[in-house]
Amino acid sequence: MPSELTIPLFAIHHHKIGGTESAIYNLIHGLDKAKAALTLAFSDPARLSPEFLRWMAKTPGIAQQRQYPLPGKNSRFVEELMFEWRRSGNGWAVYPNYFLPPRRPGSRARSAVILHDIQYKVLPQYHSSKRKAWLDFYLPRMFETADLVFLISNSEKEYVRRHFGDVAASKCKVIYNAIEWARLEQGEVGEATRKLASRPYILTVSHPFPHKNLGVLIKAFDRVAQSNPDIELYLAGKASDEKKRLIFENASEKTAARIVMTGILSDADLGELYRNAKLFVLPSLYEGFGMPAAEAMGMGVQTLVSGVTSLPEATLGKAEYVTDPTKVDAWAEQMTASLNSGKRLPTETVAEIREAFAPHKVAQSLLQNLG
């Protein structure tokens, strides 16, 4: 176990970086349980979730390192650089969201970085030329200068090998995303969520990014709805004009009335919707890990996902899979079959999923790799 470990949290902006935020918090909880000598570095506490701030306040064993916040959309890069150049000693810092600032000349401090995916190499059509140019410039230098790179699935490691070579892949270690089911099972559930959970529904959790493939899911649900007059589709996550457009373009007016945008949910509300769903579906074309699918399975919910990239790995091969996620008919048929079966996951499968991604286990893996 490293004698000193710091996690800089400058990259976190609450509700702005998707599941990465939850994964970071869960990992930190696991490191606390593993009794790591941990320091959290951050600037503006308003960027962190209220729940996490409350947890920090009652966890005195974790040191805090405050830094003056800088304004601007991309200020995290400068804040991380300032943090890195102020470091002393030979302890570890684990940067949690792909960026590793240049090391101060003569520094003996060691640095690792978590790279969540290289989707831009696999689905370049969904990324701007500017972003692709930046990552093509930056990532080779990151692989060269990092003491260690953590990836969140073996699938992702193979993509790194394919696109950046064996030397880059040799720098990489796999630690899965940590999932803390307790946060989904505690807290007060809102009355609006209780009403939603009392009706029959299919649940998905995602942003409307192109690779999330929501248009295909909505088209498939349009067909499923014809033979299942009571079932609804819940799109968990921020309600947006883009989601409204996808519903309008891919579902009939009658079906659209049965598609609910939940808006941003508390952990307790999300847990309630997971718990009571007839089926969870994640139709992504690409995932670095796919936390919502594993979360759903850990709550005992029948889960249907794309059989591509990391999703079979993140579901331990225990979910149902659509081999070609672009095929509307395949989704509609398998969704209908799953609904008709009315199954819940076996308790053995739920236990296996929870054990594989438990925060303390993921934290121990990280600490062992840091040495």
* CATH fold-level assignment of the largest domain: Rossmann fold
Structural class: alpha/beta
Low-pLDDT stretches: none
Q: What's the alpha carbon Rg, rounded to whole Å?
A: 21 Å
- Assign a percent range to the helix content: 40-55%
Number of helices: 18
CATH homologous superfamily descriptor of the largest domain: Glycogen Phosphorylase B
Assembly level: single chain
**Main sheet, how many strands, which sense, barrel?**
7 strands, parallel
CATH class of the largest domain: Alpha Beta
- Alpha-carbon distance between the termini? 5 Å
Description:
The protein is an alpha/beta fold. The model has no long low-confidence stretch (mean pLDDT 95). The chain has 2 domains: 5-179 and 358-370, Glycogen Phosphorylase B (Rossmann fold, 3-Layer(aba) Sandwich), CATH 3.40.50; 182-355, Rossmann fold, CATH 3.40.50. The strands form 2 sheets. It has a 7-stranded parallel beta sheet. Strands 10-9-8-11-12-13 form a 6-stranded parallel beta sheet, sandwiched between helices. Strand 11 (279-282), helix 14 and strand 12 form a beta-alpha-beta unit. The termini are close together. Helix content is 46%, strand content 15%.
